[in-house]
Structure formats: structure tokens, C-alpha cells
Amino acid sequence: MTTTPPGTDTSGHTVAPEPALEVTGLDVHYGRGRRRHHALRGVSLSVAPGETVGVIGETGSGKSTLARAALGLVRASAGSVTVGGEDVTAYGNRRWRALRRRGVVQYVFQDPLRSLDPDLTIEDSLIEPLLIQGTGRKEAAPLARSFLDRVRLSEDLLGRLPGELSGGQRQRVAVARALITEPRLVILDEPVSALDSANRVQVLEILKELGAAGVALVLISHDLGSVAGTADRIAVLHRGELVETGAARDVINEPRHAYTRLLVGSAPTLRTAPASRAEREALRALLDA
């Protein structure tokens, strides 16, 4: 009996892997008539398995709305959202709960305390998603230790409460909790913005390892510099529109859009001479024109 190798069709040709996330022509708006606010306009973005995409923009750019749409927390006004090959555009709350329960997509909050119950030990927080899926506690406990090790934390922390951990430790526990169901896609909201430099480096290194292991990651951030060394591609949102996307190196070294140039110039770690105030004001004027 002849079998078809993974990643090929019946003729032996290589088949591109199904995207972990695919957003096509996505519009999201709130309100009606004159009070209508367009949070997203015609956004299209695809994230492949094992790919890390940084979604960058200032407050009000639409980056958080994009994340919420990919998680079923806001409904699309137009366009489509596909997660793990499943068109979820018209899903209601019940079908979204079932999808999350299966662990297809996970979310890591900017504040890890929002991901962790303050009254549960770290072990209980880690195994809770597995218990919801029907895994027995006896089988789940070793996985808690394994995933804690994966984010470079000692199993000595398993019996502690979230409030007894540092901010960096809590964020890594939140990442481990998101990974324990082996999701196709993990969306992280400002994953390092609240951390000191040492913890920031550690968390970004862990995220880079996850991408290499095949997990699709979407990093939501206002700071281009914080994801520059981790993201494979960068997508820049401005006033609800996707104004630039490309390989991280290209977007940083040769930004095409004025808004991207403004973000690069505002991140001293990305250039030897940060943009002067006059340069930033000139770019702002160009954007407002």
C-alpha cells in the first residue's frame, strides 16, 4: 500500500502548510451612523505554523481589536477569520468556547495575573486547561512539571501562589499554561512590556524557541524594538489599516511607510541615531496630511 508523505499531495508535489491564522479583508466597526468607529479596515494577514508575527502599532491602531477578532471576542463586520483551518467568522459563543476548550488557540495577557487565578497554586493553574479537556490529574501533573521546565522555571514553584512569584516568573507561567494544551496558535498581548530587561530577554528567548518548535505566535506590541529580534515577519497597523508588512529585517532596515519610519525612529535599539524631535514631527505631519 502506497502512502502520501506529510506535506505532499497525491502527485508528490509539496503542499504549503495550512495557516494557523488567516484574516482576510477584515473590517470591525462599532456603533452606527455618525457614531460609527472603524477599528479595522480591510486587514488581511496570514500566520503559518511555526511562524512568529509581530503586530505593531500605537494605542488605537487596531492591534488589540485584531487579536480579539482572532479569539472570537469581537465579531467581524466584514471579511473572514480562519483559525487552524477552521472558518470561525460566524461562530457564536458556544462554538468559540468549544474551540478554546480544545486548545486550538490560546491567549497570554499583558498582565499575567489576568491569566492566573490568585487562589490556585502554580501546579493547579497549569493543569486546569487539561482537566477541562478531560485529562486525568494523574496524567496532567507530569505535564505541568515538563512545561514549567520548558519555560526555564524550577518545579519548586509548583506549590506556590502567583502572588509569591516575580513578574517575570508569572509571565513565564502564563506562557506555559497557554502551551500545555499544545495549541496551533498563541496570541500574546505586550508580553514583555511590564518586565525588566533581564526578564524581557529571557521571555523573548523562550518565545523564539517556541517558534522553532512549530508553534505559531502573534506578538501584539506598541514597541517595534521589543519584537525585532523575535519576529519572522512584522505587520504594522495604523488607524485600523495594515500599512506595511514584510520580513522583520526588511521592515526595520528599509521601512516604506511614514508611520513605520516613525516607529523605527522612536526605537533607539533599532538604529544608531534615533530620530530627532524634528524628524518625528515631520513624519507626524506627513501622516496627518
From TrEMBL:
What keywords does the record list, in alphabetical order? ATP-binding, Nucleotide-binding, Transport
Any Pfam family hit? oligo_HPY
What Gene3D superfamilies does its record include?
P-loop containing nucleotide triphosphate hydrolases (3.40.50.300)
> For the region Disordered, what residue ranges are annotated?
1-20
Q: Where is the composition biased (Polar residues)?
A: 1-13
- Quote the SMART domains the UniProt record gives: AAA
Q: What is this protein called?
A: ABC-type glutathione transport system ATPase component
Protein's organism: Streptomyces clavifer
| The family this protein is said to belong to | Belongs to the ABC transporter superfamily.
Which InterPro entries does the annotation name? AAA+_ATPase, ABC_transp_ATP-bind, ABC_transporter-like_ATP-bd, ABC_transporter-like_CS, Oligopep_ABC_C, P-loop_NTPase
Organismal lineage: Bacteria, Bacillati, Actinomycetota, Actinomycetes, Kitasatosporales
The ABC transporter domain, residue ranges: 23-264
